[in-house]
Specification:
The chain has helices at 14-20, 26-33, 53-56, 70-74, 113-123, 143-156, 166-169, 195-203, 206-213, 218-230, and strands at residues 41-45, 62-67, 82-86, 99-105, 124-135, 139-140, 180-182, 188-193, 237-249. It is an alpha/beta fold.
Length: 252
């Protein structure tokens, strides 16, 4: 989502993204909201379909939710306290010194960081906080499913992942973070999905889309193995995604 060259990896699958992505826990959302004492306005930057915007609206008077993808915004769930807008992270058109909390969920690795951080400082009100979050590869209770997914992720899809994906693999520790950093607890997301639901989730991966553009079909080759390991397709398997989280106070 850079200012001049937005790399749109997700508009094409916006419907699937809204349907098949895991959800952030209420404990995480409450912790984010409690980073600030004033709860007039939060900015969910790179909001996608509003997965984090909606729960944040339970804590803030107003949520500004922006994404550079019009297709993602079109899938967002309406809420009386959320104002959705199509805008890049670096040029938000948000009023200066008006935002108490800035959050970026599973998106900051696409941004032009220097420009985005300038925008953060411009829109931040006094004592504002910023949180960058995302999630890594899912883990299963089944060791066999775990191994198969890791091979699919790193070997079958390895060359199709955008370069920016490495920041997820390094848990954002290699990203510049020029703010007064706050210690963060451990959070995770959990879901119990059928085979069809998990397959739908895999379809939303940017590397799967990139492979299809190049005439490859690693997911089609993986699905028979996944079906064998899953067993009853209607059975729900428990999955866990570790949350990546960096937070800090925005200072002049």
């Amino acid at each position: 989502m850079s200012t001049d060259n937005f790399k749109d990896h997700f508009s094409q699958g916006a419907c699937g993204y809204a349907k098949y992505r895991p959800h952030y826990s209420q404990e995480l959302v409450t912790w984010l909201a409690n980073l600030v004492s004033e709860k007039n306005c939060a900015w969910d930057c790179g909001c996608g379909n509003g997965q984090l915007s909606v729960p944040l609206a339970n804590h803030f008077d107003r949520v500004l939710a922006s994404d550079a993808s019009a297709d993602q915004i079109a899938q967002a769930r309406p809420h009386p306290r959320i104002s959705y807008r199509v805008a890049t992270a670096e040029k938000s058109a948000i009023d200066a010194q008006s935002v108490n909390l800035i959050v970026v969920a599973q998106a900051v690795h696409w941004f032009a960081l220097d420009s985005f951080y300038r925008e953060v400082r411009r829109v931040a009100a006094g004592n504002a906080a910023i949180a960058l979050l995302g999630y890594g590869l899912a883990t299963f209770e089944s060791a066999a499913l775990d191994r198969a997914l890791k091979v699919f992720y790193s070997e079958d899809l390895g060359r199709y992942w955008p370069a920016e994906r490495r920041h997820i693999d390094t848990a954002y520790r290699d990203l510049a973070f020029p703010f007064a950093e706050i210690a963060t607890p451990d959070f995770a997301m959990e879901s119990r999905w059928t085979l069809a639901e998990f397959s739908g989730y895999l379809q939303t991966w940017s590397a799967v889309s990139e492979a299809a553009k190049n005439g490859a079909s690693p997911l089609e080759k993986f699905l028979p193995q996944l079906q064998r390991l899953w067993g009853d397709a209607g059975s729900k398997k428990r999955m866990r995604w570790p949350i990546i989280l960096r937070a800090g106070k925005v200072e002049d």
